[in-house]
Amino acid sequence: MTSALPDLVCRCALGLAVLLTAAPAAAQTRTDTTVLMSDHPGARKFQDQYGFSDAVVAGDLIFLSGIVAGAPPGSTDLTPGFERAYQQIGAVLKRAGASYDDIVDITSYHTDITAQIDAYAAVQKKYVKAPYPAWTAIDVDRLLPDGGLVEIKIVARKPPAARRKR
Fold first, then answer.
1. Which CATH number fits domain 31-164: 3.90.1140.10, 3.30.1330.40, 3.40.50.300, 1.10.3470.10?
2. Shortest CA distance to 36 belongs to which of 156, 132, 160?
3. By the 8 A CB rule, do 143 and 149 touch?
């Protein structure tokens, strides 16, 4: 009887390992229905050139690619660029079945964090309301494309089906 116990423990551990690795693998599969590509021809060409999408839905999580904001040509006002970026974020979230309320994590990359953070935070708070998601702001050397001042990376969670029907 004691010799059967290690075999049983081994089989249980193996079964648990299969269950734990199989479920996440299925949730991470990228397909035409889980990968959201841009509908805009110019943006789609850029995505195809560098190999990325607007977002990937993995289970109930939505991972948006970074969205770059810059000042309009000839302007030093950052607000319009941040507004456009957050409108684009909203459009991608909507296509994925979510909204600003479903954001759980924001990472923003700034080419001059000291000069940009106040204007950025003011725009962000217009779209992302309290209680706020996690947010990390990082100062970087430069962004792609040239002229980009801030890149915004979002992770959101799909809302329950009942909430999506509102």
1. 3.30.1330.40
2. 156
3. yes
Enclosing H/E stretch for 105? strand 103-110
Burial of 11 (0-12, 13-18, 19+ CB in 10 A): exposed
**How big is the CA angle at 69 (ends 65 and 73), to the nearest 5 degrees?**
145
Omega cis (within 30) before 72: no
Q: pTM, whole model, 2 decimals?
A: 0.77
DSSP 141: S
Helices (H) and strands (E) in the chain, counts: 5, 6
pLDDT digits (tens, 9 = 90+) for 7-61: 544 444 444 444 444 445 445 577 767 899 898 899 899 898 999 999 999 999 9
- Which amino acid appears at position 38 of this protein? S
